[in-house]
Amino acid sequence: MRETDRAHLKTKRKRIGISPRSMVSGAFAMALFLAPALMLCAQDAAQSGGQSGTQSGGQASSQTGSGEITIEELFLKSIEFQIIREKAVTDDREMKLSALDDLEKRIDGGLSTSDAAQVAFILEYLALEGSGRITRENGHLVNDFPEVRRRAANLLGRVGTEEARNALVRVLLIDDEPIVKAEAAYALGNLGVNPNNEVVRAMEFAYNMEDSAAPDQNFGYAISLAIERLAQKTPGGLRDPEAYRLLVRIAQGNYLRTVKAKALQVLEELKGAK
């Protein structure tokens, strides 16, 4: 987020106890939560056990019907991305943060289309660390790294691809940590893409999971900022009732005056949009 926005967004570290998302269930939940982890594990297996097969029949397996190469093959072609990937899949928090540092440098230097696909793939994996992909030891969650997920969400917003947007929507739907949800909402607002009102609905769903008696101030303010950005980047502004309803609820909710004022300000902007 920009520094001016961060000044308003008072970070609250208090975790809100929320039950697992009822909206995400069954086979969809398994695919949603585990896809990045399973794909990275598959890449490991391909590297360690399939090199001889690749040499004998690799040309056939590396080409799809349209001539495209897979993300796994892109990884194998880049030593740098292999190193970043190995850092990302370790159990160590500091190594994951180091992977994020490396990815941020790649983003700062500009991304090709293939690089963007690889970066978004690793970032989604990290953005679901401890929320969509859970590791327990003796019954205790051992991979709950909110700062890893927050930074991954921020960088996904900077990648800006459709895959990055979809990953951010998933973060909003499943993460319980306010600082992570706030970063995801803000990033989605900056992307400015809201097909079928999907982004606003995801924000409303995440908002509904908040404790109305003690909602997170940071997340409430981030939602208002996100809707403001979406409206600015949408021709003709936002015309979706969900956006208006969400802002009204924040303006009437148990929030600080600054948070309520921002929601009211955005409502006025939406009303005046032509």
3D architecture notes:
It is built from 14 helices and two strands; from the N terminus they run H-H-H-H-H-H-H-E-E-H-H-H-H-H-H-H. It has 274 residues and is mostly helical. The protein has a two-stranded antiparallel ribbon.
Strand fraction: under 5%
The arrangement of helices and strands along the chain is HHHHHHHEEHHHHHHH
Rg over alpha carbons: 20 Å
Helical/strand content category: mainly alpha
Instruction: Please estimate the helix content.
Output: 55-70%
Per-chain topology:
Blueprint: H1 3-8, H2 26-49, H3 51-62, H4 71-77, H5 79-89, H6 93-108, H7 113-127, E1 136-137, E2 140-141, H8 146-159, H9 162-174, H10 178-191, H11 198-208, H12 217-233, H13 241-252, H14 257-272
Antiparallel strand pairs: 1-2
Helix pairs in contact: 5-6, 5-7, 6-7, 6-8, 7-8, 7-9, 8-9, 8-10, 9-10, 9-11, 10-12, 12-14, 13-14
Give a quick rundown of the structure.
Helices cover 69% and strands 1% of the residues. It is an all-alpha fold and 274 residues long. It is globular, with a radius of gyration of 20 Å.
Which short descriptors sum up this protein?
single chain, 274 residues, mainly alpha, two-stranded antiparallel sheet, 2 strands
